[in-house]
Structure formats: C-alpha cells, structure tokens
Amino acid sequence: MNDIYKNILRILKTQNIHFEEIEHPPVLTCDESARYRKEHGWEGVGSKNIILHAKGRFYLIVTVAEKEIKARRFKKEFGTKNIRFATPEEVERITGCKIGAIPPFGYLNPEIPIYVDEEIFQHEYFMFNPAVHTKSIRIKTEDLKKIYKAVEQPVKFFSIKEGKIYFSDAKD
Fold first, then answer.
1. Which of 51, 58, 134, 137 is least crowded, fewest Cβ atoms below 10 Å from its Cβ?
2. What's 79's DSSP letter?
3. Which alpha helices (DSSP H) does 52-124 contain, by range?
C-alpha cells in the first residue's frame, strides 16, 4: 500500500466520509477506469487529474473524465503564457504517482495547488483512482467539497462559461 493511498484513506476516515472501493485490473486511462466502474454498477462522474507546469510551479487540475483541458485558459491565473503539461517523470517526482493513477487529493506535498472544475458538483457521485492503478473509489460530490475545505493545499474551484474561465476560493 503506497503512502498517498494511505493518506487518502486517512482523509476519508477522519472526515467521516462514506466511500466505496473496488479492485480491478490495472488501468492507465479514464476510459479503462470507466469500463470497470460500469461493470461494478457504479454511476457518477469519473475524474481526470492533470498536472500543469507554469513559472517553476506545478498545479493539479481536477476535472471530469470526458473534458479536454486547455492549459492556456489558466495563463492569467498562473501569471504566465508559458504553461505546459508536466512530463510523466515530473508527475511522478512531484506527486509520487504515475500517470493514470493521479488522485484528486491526498498528496503528501502541501505545495501543490489544486484547481477543481465545478462541473463535477453537478453529479451525485465522483469516482477516482486513489494513486493505485488497480483501485477505484467513489464518494458523493458533496463530500468532495468537504475534503477540499480540509486539505492543506490551496484549493480553487473553476468554471468555464462562454469560453471564459472563472475562479473562486474553495475554502470560503
């Protein structure tokens, strides 16, 4: 059991959050995860978790699995035009996770700011890989908000309306 997975379980338990967990063959993509979750009868929105690099910092973007994220939309928020997706090596070094198992929270590095797509909260359930390619966890989206208020990292919500991106502090 890796340390991030243990930390995710600790957060869920200390916040008294009900969760479901399944084991499945290793997955590397959102589509593979969705297939196994559907086989288990799970409904809800799957997560896509992306690490961006800008001005020497790394940022976690949490969105819905089907959504395409355009890094350039974050240029004003991050204060630069030079934004790129982190390399697989950077992702592993910064988060301790491999691509395909990047979780939406639970990092041991409190320096990683988290940006969460508000579209997630239009669904009842949220599903994600908890830093392990062979596991999926499902929680209620209202509980995800509770988690983001409690984590050490700075957390902002974002929404995209009419091609513009808007940000708000998740801890308010």
1. 134
2. T
3. 75-78, 88-95
Containing H/E element for 66?
none
Q: H/E element holding 151?
A: none
Please name the CATH architecture into which domain 3-169 falls.
Alpha-Beta Complex (3.90)
- Global pTM reads 0.92
Predicted confidence (pLDDT) per residue in 5-26, tens digit: 999 999 999 999 999 999 888 8
Which residues neighbour 71 within 8 Å (Cβ) at sequence distance 6 or greater?
A: 52, 83, 84, 85
- 21-54 pLDDT, tens digit per residue, is 998 888 877 777 888 888 878 899 999 999 999 9
Query: What kind and span of H or E run contains 87?
Result: none
Beta strands in the chain (DSSP E): 20-23, 45-54, 57-64, 83-85, 114-117, 125-128, 135-140, 155-161, 164-169
Considering only the C-alpha atoms of the chain, give the largest distance between any 2 of them, rounded to a whole number of Å: 43
